[in-house]
Specification:
Aminopeptidase; alpha+beta; 12 strands; about 280 residues; twelve-stranded mixed sheet; about 30% helix; 2 domains
Length: about 280
């Protein structure tokens, strides 16, 4: 296991992108890392763990805060017992460099061998998350919302919607600028939706993983003063439309299963719900 250097971040992103062809599991996406890049390249590198065999990356861990790690595994290596044991050993070590001692969460939606080791060694099933996917083979249906791509002219509205939609958001114009200047954003777009009176009511960022691969919505939010008007459905449709124009074969998103409103919003925008995936919690 290693912490990648800043100069290796693009290699990690490209590896994750290759793991998102149609039919591959919905797991950590390069867009997740692109969104975190708003805090800078050094902060992103510090939050990553990489497992290699020689020069080839077989797993990536993204440490979010002190108590959660998202684990993505090469789709061809999900049954690799040696890799699973190495992942389990590194993540379970309370004195190690992945998770701190005490209770911790692991989000590992793929990797039967690794998930099996968690089950067998006392990790318990925790909160469920719902992955959803929309096929982009056909054109996306219309939506009743004016949507603008974000540049310098619309960035203040993008930030305002984000901060209103997410109670603890720390998003700022400067953070957006850092994110927008980073390599992942070359394959991304921010969108803002406006109602008939010109109020910014919804926003989303979309991340392509390349042509013929799944693109990600992360994050998407609706201003709380304008909820209940199907603006979430409209901005999700707009996001799918933009991803399709970028060559994505499908659009994916995950949301806590307890957020029934979000699940229903994506479903109304043509996203099909996949079986829920549970986090794992280490007790003690």
């Amino acid at each position: 296991m290693e912490r990648p250097a800043v100069k290796s971040l693009v290699d990690v992103l490209e590896t994750l992108a290759r793991w998102h062809s149609d039919g591959d599991p919905v797991q950590l996406h390069p867009g997740d890392l692109g969104w975190h890049w708003r805090f800078g390249a050094e902060a992103l590198a510090e939050s990553l763990r990489v497992w290699r065999s020689g020069e080839e990356i077989f797993a990536v861990g993204f440490v979010e805060g002190a108590g959660l790690v998202h684990v993505a595994i090469d789709p061809t290596a999900g049954h690799d017992d040696d890799l699973a044991l190495q992942l389990f050993t590194d993540i379970s070590d309370p004195t190690g460099e992945v998770l701190s001692a005490g209770g911790a969460l692991v989000a590992a939606p793929f990797g039967e061998a690794f998930r099996g080791l968690l089950f067998e060694n006392g990790w318990v099933v925790d909160q469920p998350w719902t992955p959803l996917r929309r096929d982009l083979t056909d054109e996306v249906e219309g939506y009743d919302l004016r949507v603008e791509l974000v540049g310098p002219r619309h960035v203040y509205e993008r930030v305002a919607v984000q901060r209103s939609a997410f109670e603890n958001s720390t998003f700022t114009v400067d953070l957006w600028a850092t994110m927008a200047a980073a390599p992942p954003y070359r394959s991304a777009q921010c969108l803002v939706g406006y109602d008939a009176e010109g109020n910014p009511v919804a926003a989303v960022t979309v991340w392509s993983a390349g042509r013929g691969r799944a693109g990600l919505l992360e994050p998407m939010g609706v201003h709380p003063a304008h909820r209940g008007h199907r603006y979430g459905t409209a901005i999700a449709l707009a996001a799918a439309d933009v991803l399709r124009s970028m060559g994505s074969s499908s659009a994916i998103v995950t949301t806590p299963s307890s957020n029934v409103g979000a699940v229903a919003t994506y479903a109304s925008a043509g996203f099909r719900r996949s079986p829920d995936v549970n986090y794992f919690r280490r007790l003690g």
